[in-house]
Amino acid sequence: MYRQLRDHIEKISPLTDQEYDLVCAQFEYRKFRKHQYLTQVGEPVKYHYFVLSGLLKLVFTTENGKQHIVSFAAEDWWESDFYAFFTKTMATMSLECIEDTEVLCLSLDGYRYLCATFHKMEHFFLEKANYGFIGAQRRIISSLTSDAKERFEQLQKQYPFLIQRIPKSLIAAYLGVSRETLSRLY
Amino acid sequence: MYRQLRDHIEKISPLTDQEYDLVCAQFEYRKFRKHQYLTQVGEPVKYHYFVLSGLLKLVFTTENGKQHIVSFAAEDWWESDFYAFFTKTMATMSLECIEDTEVLCLSLDGYRYLCATFHKMEHFFLEKANYGFIGAQRRIISSLTSDAKERFEQLQKQYPFLIQRIPKSLIAAYLGVSRETLSRLY
């Protein structure tokens, strides 16, 4: 079941059929429509999400109501408000569908069970976490050193398929520029 | 040996004496003077560093020679140019001492050996990586949503001891503001 999840995990950690059955049993399939929320600010964050299809945005909203996009998540990406998920605190970010989206949901108990039971799964999540950290660090460098044009070109180069699927207003909210500034870039 | 490293690891993963001896054997002690480089741009990044004492800065320098501080690392922190370390490519950031610094150096082979041999160590590094990612994500949110004053106050609140030890010019390079702007803040 969920061949896509198995293929994704096995790029890092090959599993036997029996192991994969136990891994798979920790995930719950859910389907959301465009504009639906997976998590909302102020509510508990029950799951770490693996995206099967569709597109999500992780959004931080400031007190004046301005939305900032912390990250996007498309097929084969993992997404959550990780601080709230791991510390069992309330969400400070919302996770919302940009397209109709199918996900596999992993609870914190499920995550802990997989890591404790299968050394291979702890290894898998460590590899993902290290590359997640590297990606976040690159974004910090980009925000410190690049102007809007350069940040847009980096996004375009890194995720060419995303640019086609995301409304311009959301790309602007990700780059931290106004819609007008973005319009001058493409 | 290196009681500090053992205490640090055992906050997450308790180890037997025998296990710790094997863990410890993967680390190499080194001492650097203020202003010395642990890694330089364009050179291989051989180690992941655990700081025993002192203070480091991880610096990204743009083509025009401007220095941006990606992170600081003090006692009990882990630091490296992680992308270069994990992918065995050349450093794009430099790691330099702000104070005389003692570190324990872990090679990529040593890191892989510890993770493969001890499920507990893979768990330890996963916990560190998850919290590293969360910290980086918070910095991204801060850069998207906060002005210089707010970013300075966040730094002051999060790491009060750092503010005392770091020259103002470096705090400005971390916050992404000019020295003059920072002077108006404290």
UniProtKB/TrEMBL annotation, chains A, B:
InterPro entries: cNMP-bd_dom, cNMP-bd_dom_sf, RmlC-like_jellyroll. Signal peptide: none annotated. Residues 30-117 form the Cyclic nucleotide-binding domain. Pfam families: cNMP_binding (PF00027). Gene3D superfamilies: Jelly Rolls (2.60.120.10). This is Crp/Fnr family transcriptional regulator.
